[in-house]
Amino acid sequence: MNSPSVTESRPNLLIRLWRNKEYRSVFFQILTMVIVFAILGMIVSNVATNLKTIGKDFSFGFLDSPAGYDITFQPFIPFSPTDTHLRAAVVGVLNTLFVAVSGVIIASILGFTMGILRLSNNWLISRIVYVFLEFTRNVPVLLHILFVHSIFLYVFPVPKRAISISDTFFFSNRGILIPSPVFGDGFGYVWIVLLIAIAIVAVFVSWAHKIQDKTGKIYPVFKISLAILICLPLFTFFVSGAHLSWEIPVLKGFNFKGGTSIKPEYIALTFALSYYTSCFIAEIVRGGILAISRGQTEAAHALGLRPNRTLQLVVIPQALRVIIPPLASQYLNLTKNSSLAIAIGYMDVVATIGGISLMQTGKEMETMIIVLLTYLFFSLIISGFMNWFNRRMALVER
Amino acid sequence: MSFWLLWTIIPPFFEWSVLNSIFTADSRKECWDQMSTPGVGACWAFINDRVSLFTYGFYPKPLRWRVDLSFVLLVLAVVPILYEKLPYRKYGLLYSAVFPFIAGWLLIGGLGLEPVSTDQFGGIMLTLILGITGITFSLPIGIALALGRLSNMPTLRMLCVLFIEFIRGVPLITLLFVASTMLNYFFPPGTVYALLTRVLIILTLFGSAYMAEVIRGGLQAISKGQHEAGDSLGLTYWQAQRLIMLPQALKISIPGIVNTFIGFYKDTTLVLIIGMMDLLGLGYSSLGDIKWAGLANEVYLTVALFYFICCFSMSRYSLYLEKKLHTGH
What we know:
By secondary structure, chain A is an alpha+beta fold. Helices cover 66% and strands 7% of the residues of chain A. Chain A has three domains: 50 residues; 227 residues, MetI-like (MetI-like fold), CATH 1.10.3720; 67 residues, no CATH class.
């Protein structure tokens, strides 16, 4: 740093401070903070004056006033137009979560299946999957959603001419109708026994693991657990004489009465999001399995493990380590993409509080802040969970 | 089983789309009258009827040469980026960097050209405007954000992390709602920007947050020794970044950058929800036309094909780059 001409007089204090790396960095940080706060302050003052000129205020009081609109899809908590905007927001959040959770489950199943099929030795199967993957991945997800929805609208018949399977399941352009269970007296016992059965299975599994660690004896854990889970509740069901009946949908007038109706918007959204996301998951799974070196499989075979045990105990645990971080971001993407619900009129959080409530109250700032915070909250939870999971799965290195 | 799958899908699709399809008609009724049974074939006449709408949107007819000229200039701007061995590539790249501004002037008008309102933009043209503007501006901002996130200054780092994680944590559609409903409140009183401008601002910020993460990955993949070597040579921070770090980091992250471009390009379709007429938006709204009602499959297939061609070629290009970079080691 020192120039050869040290003889010249020492520069003044400011220049010396400027040449010191630490002080310079402090100066830059203060400068950025000043600029950022200046911009933020300008935005806030702009917002304040702009709101004043059009005579709006900034408050969340509107959340308590009646919403005045109906929500067509409300499987969890009932909602009527006299309920508040806040309740509408909660219904919207629940609907978002419903799509996200079911989408994640279906997408994982489809994605893992396709990822493994893509590695199949059968040339034709792996090619078909490849073509499907490439075509689906390279087309916008919104187009998939609109397309699946349009299939429902234009291809499925009106309720009067609904396609029926033995008069219990109906397919029409108003959705799919399935019989809904009606729980009679005494059914509570069955639920209690089911909980007990789950507890027994948990104890059994840990016991079996311990025995295996000690003696090397392997029990058919999965089959026994399944038997406990199914037989115990069924047994109580017949012994206690509880009532369970099915309400079957019936065509009355122009629409169906009774039964559970799964709305076409929900099916279209979930289905489109799942198969779109599953294509990305398939690629991740394929990459993860390919990343495991062949030596691992050969070593497992040399130890005498059967092929399915090899996959279960050697390949998949190692592949998961590679698969999980990108998989988490795909789950996050699916959750975020579920906001496209508004395009086909599924009432998620963007469509209720950020859509109709916004239009009715004119509170753009407040409603958008609620929606943004909701999604940020979900994102933080998912990424936090995935980080925890990742740490648990991570390779313990010296 | 796979043979059976192919057999059930391909021949009926071929019959529908090629053998029984109709290319010239004036309405759906006319179209279906030409078939043995209505709906047995595709009615491509609909698409034929709408081609100019799908390409130019509502751009005034006498001024469409300006759009055509922009398309030609676009192709010329892409060439120097793709071919490394082009003679005088430096000037070509300079032109590519200036191209968005030239195209903007051509399309919007002003300075001697008749001005056109951005509300009339639409179709493939709008899709390309959104995609290319977002991509061009998000790359430099993304680089700046990535450097900020890796910098030694805690406040700067925190600001960049906050910004990136906020943008990546919320869906694009909510950000677009912000653009369409509340962004105008952020500007000084009296200034009102067109919807297109606001959407472009949001799309650029959105793209740059994702770009920043890709570039950060590239920067982190470079060994610390490189930076220290730069320091020991007496280079300043900016010289070290410009001459040593960024050239290597960008080269590693090119496949990731292209993949981000593809995702971004697909995401531009979301502007349909806030009422802008890009290609998918026009296709979607044409379905409401009574004369042609019920031809959703034809429209969606056409739009899907357009996006597929764009995105698939981009992803092939990224694979090609990946292979080329791989042999370098």
